[in-house]
Amino acid sequence: MSSYKLTYFAIAGLAEPIRFLLSYGGIDYEDNRVPHENWPAIKPQTPFGQVPILEVDGKTLYQSNAIVRFLAYKLKLFGSSESEHFEVDAHVETIGDLRSLLFTWNWAETPENKIAKEAEIRKKAAFYLGKLEASVKENGGYFVGGKLSAADIVFAGFNYVFSYILGNEFLADYPNLKNLVEKVNALPGIKSHIAKRPKTLC
Predict the structure, then answer these.
(1) Which end of the chain is more exposed for a tag (fewer CB within 10 A), N or C?
(2) What is the Cα–Cα distance from 140 to 158, expressed in whole angstroms?
(3) What angle do CA 60, 33, 201 make, to 5 degrees?
(4) Taking a C-beta distance cutoff of 8 angstroms, is the pair 78, 149 a contact?
């Protein structure tokens, strides 16, 4: 039996979509949550000084989107055609663009710059969310092909931290995205993960 060990900080962050995928797939894994004070000792042991990393049978996988693709392929969550594969991948990248926008604004800016840029960032986030909302509306309640894909799970996985950054009601104007998150969160493996995951701010 394969062994899986996911290493990330003791938050949801970049690792939560990966945790969602592992949980959805019923893959037993070690959820290695590293306290920030222990990070300097662990950092040199990672391929590029970054987490998350996923160790599978002794092989270290890195880069969060690459790990997502690895698991999506394994779990057959890339659609049922080349065209759908592309659409799923493109949606994962678009969600990644939204994530980068919000993470950089929330954590990399000085407090003064964060306040000054808030209106601009919220406008850009609304652009992405509007496009994603339209995709779900046009595709039967999912991002691609009217069925569950990696893109749906990735978006729902980031919902926790997006809510922290934008506010708990950030999907109030996007009912299709809200319904999508609720559907993904209700999937048995993911529902179980949510019920037992540690309570963190982000």
Answers:
(1) N
(2) 21
(3) 130
(4) yes
